[in-house]
Specification:
340 residues, alpha/beta, 17% strand, 3-stranded mixed sheet, globular, 7-stranded parallel sheet, Rossmann fold
């Protein structure tokens, strides 16, 4: 079987780091990206990190003819699907756009894969499918629920993939429920590059620390948590990327299908992260407590034991690594992949 892997949406934050992990793990990775939510500038950075040219095709997974041609011409043996919109608030404002891109795009991708005879898939799901968890840490068997159109797209796709595998056991599908990826590659060459106001906590923290924003807004300090701020499972992007490498080996070598959490199993509050960032990098992060955001929950962190049992994977990097690597990226790239 070919070791050529297609990364759809592979130029984004998670996709680019996974590209490096797969190349370092002995795979030949090919990127397909329309750059609607990423920058072509990442390709030169990936070439420097890996020491080789970066195969990349510009296009959308909704272009079925293109995807089918790429799968066949590039002799692809598996697809890792990152091509999805992922902002919760935006999904509330633009639900049809999210259902069209996330669900419609996945349907087109699966049809193209089936036509090309490529039935090995790693799907990027999310801890958002757990909604408001009944208890923490959260195991994969926990009840699923949704609190946004974005979360609903992930839940729909999970159910769709389950039905597909049941109808045709030739499909080997690894569904990875991400928790909160943060940090950057230790080289400082690739990292998280929000196009506008960051939707995620860490890039907002780094921009405040750099002086690009006046202060960090912490949405609510009256949750039922130790310090009143929301608790999340932050996972280093390098650990998350390596999780894809382990998952890929499982579906290719064992023809396995599974659903696993990728998290650390440790919950940190917003204030925990801010204070650790300040201490690790000797910088100040001014903040203000503001009203809660609709849809936010008190606490969400993983039970990651199944990933260790099934895949032999576990997170190795701690919060300090996440903070120092994210700060290095921000300092070296104050405008992300744009001209510095």
């Amino acid at each position: 079987m070919s070791k050529r892997i297609l990364l759809t949406g592979g130029a984004g934050f998670i996709g680019s780091h996974t590209y490096v992990s797969l190349v370092e793990g002995g795979y030949e990775a090919v990127i397909l990206d329309d750059f609607s939510n990423s920058s072509p500038g990442v390709l030169d950075r990936l070439r420097v990190i890996t020491g080789r040219a970066v195969p990349c095709i510009r296009g959308s997974i909704q272009d079925r003819a293109l995807v089918c041609r790429v799968l066949r011409d590039e002799n692809i043996s598996a697809v890792v699907q990152f091509a999805a919109f992922k902002a919760v608030g935006e999904s509330v404002a633009q639900p049809l756009r999210y259902y069209d891109n996330n669900v419609g795009g996945m349907i087109g991708l699966l049809q193209s894969m089936n036509d090309a005879g490529c039935r090995n898939l790693i799907f990027s799901s999310s801890a958002t499918v757990y909604g408001e968890p009944e208890s923490v840490p959260i195991a994969e068997s926990a009840r699923r629920s949704i609190n946004s159109p974005y979360g609903h797209t992930k839940l729909i796709i999970e159910d769709m993939l389950g039905a597909l595998h049941q109808s045709d056991p030739r499909w080997a599908i690894g569904t990875l429920r991400y928790f909160n990826p943060v940090g950057a590659h230790p080289s400082g060459l690739i990292g998280e590059h929000p196009r506008d106001i960051p939707n995620n906590l860490m890039p907002y923290v780094t921009q405040v620390a750099l002086g690009q924003r006046e202060y960090l807004s912490i949405f609510g300090a009256d949750y039922d948590t130790p310090d009143g701020t929301g608790v999340r499972d932050y996972i280093h992007i390098q650990d998350l990327a390596n999780g894809h490498l382990f998952a890929l080996k499982a579906i290719l070598e064992k023809a396995a299908s599974f659903v696993v959490n990728l998290g650390t199993g440790v919950g940190y509050s917003v204030l925990d992260l801010v204070r650790n960032f300040e201490a690790a990098n000797d910088v100040a992060v001014p903040y203000r407590i503001v009203a809660r955001r609709p849809g936010d929950i008190a606490s969400c962190f993983a039970d990651p034991r199944l990933a260790n049992t099934l895949l032999g994977w576990q997170a190795k990097l701690g919060l300090r690594d996440m903070c120092t690597d994210a700060w290095r990226w921000q300092q070296h790239n104050p405008r992300g992949y744009d001209a510095t």
